[in-house]
Amino acid sequence: MKYYLASFLFFITFINIISGSEKPILVPAVSENFNLDGKLEEKFYRENPPYLLRSITGKNPAGQKTEVWICLNNNNLLIAFRCFEKNIAELRKTVTRKDGPVHEDDCVEFFLRPDADKSCYYHFVVNALNTTCDSVRNNTKVKVYSVNPADWNGVWASNVSITKDYWSVELRIPAAQFIWGRKAAMNLCRERMAGKLELSSLAELSKGSFHCPEDFIEIKFNHFTDAVILKEVSEITFYDNKENNVHIGIRNKDKNQKNLKVELQLYSAGSGDADIIKRNYCLKGKAEEFIDFKYKIKSRAKYKRYKLLLHINDDLLFFKANRLPHILNIIIAGNLFYSGELVPVTIKCKAPYPEKYRYKVYLTGGKNKIILNKDVKFENNKNLTIAIPRNIQGKHTVLVQLCDDGNGVVDRIESDIRIVELN
Question: What is the model's pLDDT at position 271?
Answer without folding.
Answer: 63
